[in-house]
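User: I'll paste a sequence; please echo it back and then give the predicted structure.

Assistant: Echoing your sequence first, then the prediction.
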Amino acid sequence: MAGRFRGPHSPGSDGGGLPPSLRHRLATRPKWVTIAASPFLIAAFFQPPLGMVGSLAGFGLIATAMWLTREGLAAEAAYDLRRVARRPAVPRKLLGGLLAGLGLGLGAAEPGAIAGAAVIGLAGFALHWLAFGADPMRDKGIDGDGGFQQDRAARMIDEGEAHLARIQQAIGGLGDRRLDDRVARFAGTVRRLFERVRDNPGDLSATRRYLGIYLQGASEATDKFASLYARHGDAKSRAAYEAFLDDLEKDFSAQSGKLLDADRSDLKIEIEVLRERLAREGVRPVDGGTTPLSEDARRLDEVLSPRQGVTAGRR
């Protein structure tokens, strides 16, 4: 969806780590680059004051650059994962490359060798770009005024995530591992519904109650249960709360299934429309007795119906 990526240090974040789905395949590289820059840090204490400041500043800039790069990789992973997404608001990898080049040049600078340090810095920026690539620079899957619906869905999902966080925090305070796991399963089911809405924000009207009213009610019920259970350890209250989660999870799962069925229906309609267009151009299945007009049409029909072969030819 066109939601904004929030890392653990982004505004409005709860400070937690990134979920596994947002781990970029290059996520470990920044750590090794930071380690490779450690000679600047070590050598700083064996230099005169000016050289020490330069080496420390060089290492600090490189470490900051790698932190920005790691955040940029996570933002890129979130962008790639979603069918509809906005480009990252801040080009973290670009800024990381600039800081890495500046830090490398500053750390390698010597009196009277500014040009050489500048060349090293430019080389560092180029190597950073080759190693980590560029930030996504275009919105994906957003046409015309669709961004309004995307932003609206993003706000509602953020509210839903806040309700989930309160539920998990309230149960976490009880120190009960089994309850923690039960709530985690419920949260996973809810987030699958979030993903459905992210992929198709046009379904927001059908899920508004789930993202708002139902989750808010679940959060309030969880607060009351946690307060009661912490004081009395009432087994009946616990059983009632777990049954409540079971019913609520079934409702969310059913709603996710409805959205998936709707997406499948939309896909089926699009395929049928394309088939009609192909038919008008002369494309028919083999058992239909006619042949398509072009090789491109044959390939498209194979994509739409992999089990039906078609042949290419000219009438």
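The chain has a mean pLDDT of 76. The two ends are 46 Å apart (CA to CA).
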